[in-house]
Amino acid sequence: MGTNGPGALTYAPLVQLREGSTLLDLDDIAFHTQAILQGKPSDVFEELLHLNTSAAGARPKVSLNLSADLNIIEDEGTGEPWLIKFASNYDTIDCGAIEYVYSLLAGRAHLPMSQTHLFDARLGPGYFGTKRFDRIKGERLHMQSASALLHAEYRIPALDYKDLLALTLALTHDVREVERMYRIAVFNVLAYNRDDRARNFSFLMDRDGTWSTAPAYDLTFSHGPGGEQSTMVMGEGRNPTAEHLLALGQVASIPQPLAKHIIEETREALSHWTEFASAYGVSRERIAEIAKKVER
Questions:
Q1: For the chain, what is the domain count?
Q2: CB-based burial of residue 163 (10 Å sphere; 0-12 exposed, 13-18 middle, 19+ buried)?
Q3: Residue-level pLDDT at 78
Q4: Please, are residues 224 and 240 in contact by the beta-carbon 8 Å criterion?
Q5: Cβ–Cβ contacts within 10 Å for residue 87, how many?
Q6: Which of 98, 126, 108, 97 is nearest to 272 (CA)?
Q7: By three-state DSSP, how is residue 211 classified?
Q8: Which residues constitute the domain of residue 258?
Q9: Which residues of the chain have pLDDT under 70?
C-alpha cells in the first residue's frame, strides 16, 4: 500500500504476473474471467487479481499499462494506463463494439472524452478499452464521483440532472464545465443510456485545487432500472424529451440557442449509429434494436 497523488491511496496485492507474461492476450483473460463468473476454478486467478482494477461495474475489467502500439503490457511506471472491459454473464458478444461505437459518437457530439480503442478478439468484434483519465505520467489525479460528493446512492436512481449541473457549477465555478456536463446529459438521454447513475459522473482536481468535469465514461445502450433514466431530467425518468432537456438548460443558465445547438449536434452524431455499428461488427439485431430507440 502506498500514497500516490493528492489524498489518494493505492493498493496492490502481493502477487506478480507469471514469468514471461508480457504479451497482451485478451482472449486468455476473457476466457478465465468467464470461468470465474460461472463459478469455475481458474489457474490464473492470482494474475487476474493483480490485473483487476478497483473500478466497479457489472463487467469484469483489467487495468493494464500499454505501449504506444496498444499491444504490450509494460512494467509499472511505463507505458500508458488503460482499462479494458470483458462481457458479463448478461452481455451480448458485441457489447464491446457497442460501447466503442458510443464513444465515437460521443466524441462526434463534442463530449469530453478519453481515448478509446476496440481491441481484437477471436470471438466477437472485440473488447472495449479506454485510456485512464485519472493517471498522468504515472501520477494519480484526485477524482471524486457525484455519488461520493453528494453522498448519493449509486446502486439505485438518486439524482436529477439539475442537481448534477448545480454541483458542477458549485465545484468548478466555471460555466464551461456546466456546458460539458450538460452535453453528457443530452447524450445519455438521446442515446438511450439509462444506466446514468450517480457514480457514472466524476470530477478531477489538479494540484492547485481546481476542479473540472472528468471525461464521460460508461456510455453505452442501457434500458436502466424499470426502463427509466437512472438520473432524471427535470423530474422525468421514463420518457425525457428535448423539451425536458431545454428546461434543464434553462435552470442551469445555459442560453436557449446554445442548448438547442447542443441537442442538434448530439442528434446529428447519433444519426451515424447504424453506419458506425455496421462498420465495427455490431449484430444486425442489436443495430436495429438500438436504432429504434435512438431514432425515436
A1: 2
A2: middle
A3: 74
A4: no
A5: 23
A6: 108
A7: strand
A8: 141-294
A9: 1-24, 32, 35-58, 72-77
